[in-house]
Amino acid sequence: MVIAVLRHLSNLLRRLTVDYLKACRLLAETEEQIEKANMVLTPEEKTKLERMNQLLLMPEILY
């Protein structure tokens, strides 16, 4: 029973790690695209980008 619980927790942690890394890549790609395009962000877009950064720095609030 203990082994089954540990396997389940391990799988959950593995999936969380994969999701976190995907989010990091997406944010990095988005920021790179913004820089390449030399875009000026609207206040709303800046707020969304800041919120994404906060979520990535504190992944525990995602789940």
Can I get a quick summary?
By secondary structure, this protein is mainly α.
Question: What secondary-structure arrangement, pairings included, does this model have?
Answer:
Elements: H1 2-37, H2 43-57
Indicate the overall shape.
Answer: elongated
What about the largest sheet?
none
| Gap between N and C termini | 25 Å
Low-confidence stretches: none
- Total beta strands: 0
Tally the helices: what do you get? Answer: 2
Give the overall pLDDT as a whole number. Answer: 83
Rg for CA atoms: 16 Å
Order of helices and strands: HH
Percent helix = over 70%
Beta percentage is under 5%
* Class based on secondary structure composition and strand pairing: mainly alpha
Structural description of this entry:
81% of the residues lie in helices and 0% in strands. It has 63 residues and is an all-alpha fold. Helix 1 runs antiparallel to helix 2. It is elongated, with a radius of gyration of 16 Å. The chain starts with a helix and ends in a 6-residue tail after the last helix.
Key features of this structure:
single chain, 63 residues, mainly alpha, 81% helix, elongated
